[in-house]
Amino acid sequence: MKQAIISGIGLWTPENSISNEELVTAYNAWATQFNKDHFTEIEAGDISAKTLSTAEFIEKASGIKSRYAYCKEGILDATRMRPIIPSRPDDALSVQAEIALHAAKQALLSANKTPDQIDAVIVACSYTQRAYPAIAIEVQNALGINGFGFDMLVACSSGTFGLHRAYEMIKAGTAQGVLVINPELTSPQVNYCDRDSHFIFGDVAVATVIESAETCQSEHSYEIISTKAATVFSNNIRSNFGYTARVSDTDPFSMDALFHQNGRKVFKEVCPMAAEHITAHIRQHDLHIENIRRWWLHQANINMNLLITRKLLGRDATADEAPIVLDKYANTASAGSLIAFQQNHEDLECGNYGIICSFGAGYSIGSLLIRKR
Asked: Does 193 qualify as catalytic in the annotation?
């Protein structure tokens, strides 16, 4: 069977960045007005007053200092608390395809590839802005790629699960080149009125080229040694937005329909699951933890990453061993571990091993053991 190679990766970052201070100012203004408008109910104990926040609280709880947004307008408006992204006609390029294309072109350039050398396009992310036609097929059409494309949703593990599918296509010979894109347009699903989650997510797009060793021409490439995936059902991270709201007569934009989680349970349950998953993956190849040169982990919360690497290494990991990018990008869902890879992979030496790992809602966890060529 053919060797599957990561030959290129591209990153698109929005122009708009939002600091913790900006986000807190808007949230506190909204919360103060809410408490004023509902003073009577709060005094009667019917509802709880909204607690104000601070930039220091956000950074301590998550390690996040800022995040990018496709559209900043509206998010910081205390009378709106959500971005303003105008709809587009059916014959116009969709927003998600637009950001996917930016990343895809960078990935192709990184891999020294042209669209005619790609057979398949996978758009793998936490949310797609419509049910069909697939965003992947729209991107395929825009790039002029002959072949096929499809969307897949596995929340924050969509990045690694998408790469798994590309790996299998190359190994099986059903595709010669696969473009996996993670266009994470998360801001429309963020509840900016929730003190515990309004700071978590950021918008971004990442794209990765997977191909066989025979066709690889890039300067920096990695052989995918193997992949490993696992899912365990949990309600602790959830987003209920869906088309059935029309027939259940519920509000499709209610707080329950937006992203929400039980953060403490997620932390307690996912961290050991991720550490055990990674350890088992490495041992499949008679390797040891000390054989892994770099850990490109999911970027959701700095405290999760610190705990997982501490479980793996028996000590605190250095920034060189386990790069952190969430301070600048926040949680970018499926794109996080791949941003860490994109920004921290060229310095490794031939033969160095690394692990790309994502984990999140589902629960889902996916990893790739890779080696620098």
From this structure: no
